[in-house]
């Protein structure tokens, strides 16, 4: 899934700041996006994702810093001369043109003949699964079809970078999932760098080679989906991507290889130094772990690492999964735990006592 | 190549045969329709009494004979024959059309940048104030505005005294008052808000991301305007044209106050026949004739604008037919120009115009078809 790191750089941000009047929308963005990468900008509403995307497209002037595309400084280069194309959130399909005219809009200055251009248009339509829609009026399209037209219209120009601003948010769940798969396939097929803006963490995890998680105009973490999920840089990122439990902890001693930790409920244990996230002193010390790294032991099952007794405080049944809120004996807070439902295994009731197992290797230490 | 979902749907079959008989019955006599008719009846009654009846009376008058002090109930086409053979009517009608066209062109051309400015460059919160400011001229009576123009354009008026004071001219310009020019200037000023508003509304409706899309797809700001903004604003421009053209052609006050003998228009002729000569049938025939003219002019204009849109569409579409499209635009202009020349020189000017426009239109249609079949 992850591209090799030696892939050449396509986009580089160097300390990019953007002010809207007094409002500091981008606060020192420094990042590199590689050629051929499926890159996502993920973050809550208002964190500046769209703003950052628009600085790439050239719709937004930056207040300071450098944006480079394909090793060229983009300062002063207008949107129409940048090697990028955009799929707008509203799709921005020209209502006065047919589907084919929309797709061919950017080909006006193309030196090819009319016939060749028409052929390119029908090929682009075929690529997005809209064969035969060319003569349709733009207003006679469904949301999903509009999106495909917008894609074809951008891809026909063979940009170096394709920018997508929440392209799937207007679609229903089923359609969205289908389009996610199609976009991934399309990206592999054309090999163009895709930069996707989304506030949907699941979407970002499914689609991206790498993800930049943004909060308040800053990139909080830039990693591949697996690292992002397994080892979030701080508690905010951890909470934004999936669910994470936090248990207050105390660092007893620390060497360059390992850290001795004590947490009420978990007892005293040692973690490897690289399980610690963030800079020292950033946050209150806590151990974090994902719900699926805790397991309830049934009958005479044995824990592979550690186990303790707990009480079930809440049960949420999802069909294939059950979520339990459990409180380890002696722990100050309840924790969420997820179990796959297996035939013949009972779903526990609220108040039940259970043996809970975990592995210290799956913990993340925030400090 | 990977193919994604969806295929074009088959053409939907047309619904089964509808019965022509009974359709009328279903339309008018079903309870819903009756209800609807009941609901519109007050308005319909009002419109009938105040619009249809007077119009019908004028229509009726135009086929009657003028007696000395009365109107004889002898049906005749004589009024129309006289109207259409009268060189005065022809001249005045041509002038009215010319003045209206000039007013329309001037007004719409001036209104577009204004509307564009308010829509694109004024902060959203201040737009309503701007629109409000645009309506300020309406706070005074139209008559006063006309007299103001008299002051501005007059022999010793603002323009002349300023230019003379600056030494630009040595004698006052007389070409700007008491002729068609002053009528055009005054009307263009008076109708500006009517043209600004529909264009403004059309511009406001344009999704701004469409303009960004235009830029994103490689077009400069100017070409984005040409290929995106202008075509999307066209409905507003067309309504502005109609709103200005239709009332100005029958304008009465402006030419009678500012037109002088050389600036009189159709409405003045009608007034002359009705009130001065007391010839109702002739006045009616003149009025009906000029109404018919406006109707025909509008139909021709519509046909032309449809064609123009297709030509323009080909121009802004992806097919890079640049030069040939410019040629087509030139052809449209030439057809208009030719019409006017033919119209002014030949007698029966108006029909000549219609004929020439129609020929030009058909020629262009044929040309476009051939272009399209090539594509
Ligand atoms: N033209 C503007 N003028 C002033 N402030 C703006 C402007 N555009 C955006 N902002 C502000 O900048 C911040 C970032 O906006 P941006 O559109 O990038 O957010 P986003 O991350 O895309 O959010 P969303 O997920 O809601 O689209 C927001 O707080 C927004 O209010
Ligand atoms: Mg956004």
Secondary structure elements and their pairing?
The complex is a heterodimer of chains A (367) and B (375).
Chain A lengths: L8 E12 L2 E12 L3 E5 L6 H9 L6 E6 L2 E2 L10 E4 L11 H5 L10 H14 L15 H13 L5 E5 L7 H18 L2 E6 L2 H7 L2 E6 L2 E6 L1 H6 L4 H6 L4 E4 L1 E5 L3 E6 L3 E6 L3 E2 L8 E4 L5 E3 L8 E12 L3 E8 L6 E6 L12 E6 L5 E3 L1
Chain B lengths: L22 H7 L1 H31 L3 E2 L4 E2 L5 H8 L1 H35 L5 H8 L7 H12 L4 H8 L14 H25 L3 H9 L4 H29 L3 H6 L7 H11 L3 H37 L5 H24 L3 H26 L1
Antiparallel strand pairs in B: 1-2
Bound molecules: adenosine-5'-triphosphate and magnesium ion.
Describe the structure.
The complex is a heterodimer of chains A (367) and B (375). In chain A, 41% of the residues are buried. Chain A contains eight helices and 22 strands. A six-stranded mixed beta sheet of chain A has the order 6-7-8-3-9-10, sandwiched between helices. In chain A, strands 17-21-18-19-20 form a five-stranded antiparallel beta sheet, with no helix packed on it. In chain A, strands 2-1-4-5 form a four-stranded antiparallel beta sheet, covered by helices on one side. Helix content of chain A is 21%, strand content 35%. In chain A, helix 3 crosses helix 4. In chain A, strand 12 and strand 13 form a beta hairpin. Chain A has 367 residues and is α+β, with helices and mostly antiparallel strands. Chain B is mostly helical. Chain B folds into three domains: 2-51; 93-278, MetI-like (MetI-like fold, Orthogonal Bundle), CATH 1.10.3720; 294-375, no CATH class. Chain B has a two-stranded antiparallel sheet. In chain B, helix 4 packs antiparallel against helix 10. The relative contact order of chain B is 0.09. Chains A and B meet through strand 6, helix 2, helix 3, helix 4 and helix 5 of A and helix 9 and helix 10 of B. Magnesium ion is lined by residues 49-50 of chain A.
């Amino acid at each position: 899934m992850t591209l090799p790191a030696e892939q050449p750089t396509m986009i580089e941000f160097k300390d990019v700041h953007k002010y809207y009047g007094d409002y500091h929308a981008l606060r020192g963005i420094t990042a590199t996006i590689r050629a051929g990468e499926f890159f996502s900008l993920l973050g809550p509403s208002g964190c500046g994702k769209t703003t950052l995307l628009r600085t790439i497209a050239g719709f937004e002037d930056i207040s300071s810093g450098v944006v480079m595309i394909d090793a060229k400084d983009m300062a002063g280069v207008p949107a129409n001369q940048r090697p990028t194309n955009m799929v707008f959130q509203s799709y921005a399909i020209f209502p006065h043109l047919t589907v084919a005219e929309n797709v061919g809009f950017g080909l006006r200055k193309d030196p090819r003949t009319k016939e060749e251009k028409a052929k390119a248009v029908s090929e682009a339509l075929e690529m997005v699964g809209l064969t035969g829609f060319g003569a349709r009026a733009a207003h006679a399209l469904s949301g999903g079809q509009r999106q495909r037209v917008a894609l074809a219209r951008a891809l026909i120009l063979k940009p170096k970078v394709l920018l997508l601003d929440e392209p799937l948010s207007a679609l229903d769940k089923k359609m969205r999932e289908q389009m996610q798969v199609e976009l991934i396939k399309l990206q592999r097929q054309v090999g163009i760098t895709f930069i996707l803006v989304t506030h949907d963490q699941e979407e970002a995890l499914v689609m991206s080679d790498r993800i930049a998680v943004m909060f308040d105009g800053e990139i909080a973490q830039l990693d591949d989906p697996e690292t992002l999920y397994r080892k979030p840089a701080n508690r905010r990122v951890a909470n934004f991507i999936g669910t994470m439990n936090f248990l207050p902890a105390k660092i007893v001693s620390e060497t360059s290889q390992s850290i001795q930790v004590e947490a009420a409920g978990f007892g005293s244990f040692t973690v490897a130094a690289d399980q610690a996230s963030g800079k020292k002193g950033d946050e209150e010390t806590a151990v974090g772990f994902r719900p699926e790294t805790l397991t309830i032991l049934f009958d005479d099952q044995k824990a592979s690492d550690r186990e303790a007794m707990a009480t079930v405080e809440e049960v949420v049944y999802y069909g294939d999964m059950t979520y339990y809120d459990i409180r380890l004996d002696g722990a100050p807070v309840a924790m969420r735990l997820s179990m796959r439902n297996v035939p013949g295994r009972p779903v526990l009731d609220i108040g039940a006592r259970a043996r809970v197992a975990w592995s210290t290797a799956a913990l993340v230490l925030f400090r | 190549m990977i193919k994604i979902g969806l295929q074009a749907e088959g053409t939907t079959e047309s619904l089964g045969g509808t019965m022509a008989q009974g359709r009328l019955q279903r339309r008018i006599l079903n309870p819903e329709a009756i209800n609807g008719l009941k609901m519109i009846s007050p308005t319909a009654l009002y419109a009938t009494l105040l619009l249809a009846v007077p119009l019908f009376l004028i229509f009726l008058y135009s086929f009657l004979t003028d007696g000395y002090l009365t109107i004889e109930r002898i049906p005749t086409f004589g009024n129309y024959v006289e109207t259409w053979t009268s060189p005065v009517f022809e001249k005045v009608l041509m002038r009215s059309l010319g003045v209206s066209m000039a007013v329309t062109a001037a007004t719409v051309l001036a209104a577009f940048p204004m509307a564009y400015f308010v829509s694109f460059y004024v902060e959203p919160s201040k737009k309503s104030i701007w629109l409000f400011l645009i309506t300020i001229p309406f706070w005074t009576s139209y008559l006063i505005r006309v007299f103001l123009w008299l002051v501005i354009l007059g022999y010793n008026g603002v323009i002349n005294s300023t230019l003379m004071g600056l030494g630009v001219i040595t004698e006052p310009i007389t070409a700007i008052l008491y002729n068609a020019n002053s009528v055009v200037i005054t009307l263009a000023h008076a109708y500006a808000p009517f043209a600004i508003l529909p264009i403004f509304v059309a511009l406001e409706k344009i999704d701004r991301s469409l303009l960004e899309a235009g830029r994103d797809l490689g077009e400069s700001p100017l070409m984005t305007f040409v290929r995106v903004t202008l075509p999307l604003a066209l409905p507003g421009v067309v309504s502005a044209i109609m709103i200005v053209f239709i009332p100005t052609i029958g304008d009465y006050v402006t030419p009678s106050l500012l037109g002088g003998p050389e600036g009189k228009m159709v409405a003045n002729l009608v007034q002359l026949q009705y009130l001065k000569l007391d010839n109702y049938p002739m006045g009616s025939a003149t009025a009906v004739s000029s109404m018919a003219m406006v109707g025909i002019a509008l139909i021709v204009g519509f046909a032309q604008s449809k064609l123009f849109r297709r030509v323009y569409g080909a121009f802004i579409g992806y097919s890079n037919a640049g030069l040939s499209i410019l040629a087509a635009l030139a052809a449209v202009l030439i057809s208009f120009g030719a019409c006017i020349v033919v119209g002014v020189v030949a007698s029966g000017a108006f029909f000549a115009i219609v004929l020439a426009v129609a020929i030009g239109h058909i020629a262009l249609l044929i040309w476009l078809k051939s272009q399209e079949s090539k594509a």
